From TrEMBL:
Annotated ranges, domain Ion transport: 1-108
Primary localization: membrane
Compartments reported by the entry: Membrane
Transmembrane spans: 28-50, 88-107
Pfam families: Ion_trans
Membrane topology (UniProt): Multi-pass membrane protein
Organism: Ataeniobius toweri
Entry keywords, A to Z: Membrane, Transmembrane, Transmembrane helix
Protein name per Swiss-Prot or TrEMBL: Voltage-dependent T-type calcium channel subunit alpha-1H
Amino acid sequence: MMIKVVAMGLYFGEGVYLQSSWNVLDGVLVFVSLVDILVSIASTGGNRILGMLRVLRLLRTLRPLRVISRAPGLKLVVETLITSLRPIGNIVLICCAFFIVFGILGVQ
């Protein structure tokens, strides 16, 4: 990540690192991993507040998405899946409303 930031630039200019959403995801994963390492080092004394930050380990499950950014076909599939989540959510809400209505009618 640091080599790409140095080569491309961080924020200003054309073709910078933060212009691509895949690079932003990669940066977030690196940042979460660094925070997790720091929390695990600092929580050896038994500090409970820092122990709660271990929830950040769940975000490390997104690491395989870094590989997807290098495969153009797989990248297209994942982007299509992400854009289709909103319409699928609307359909799920409508189905839940029908289940509730017919559930109430069934109980009656």
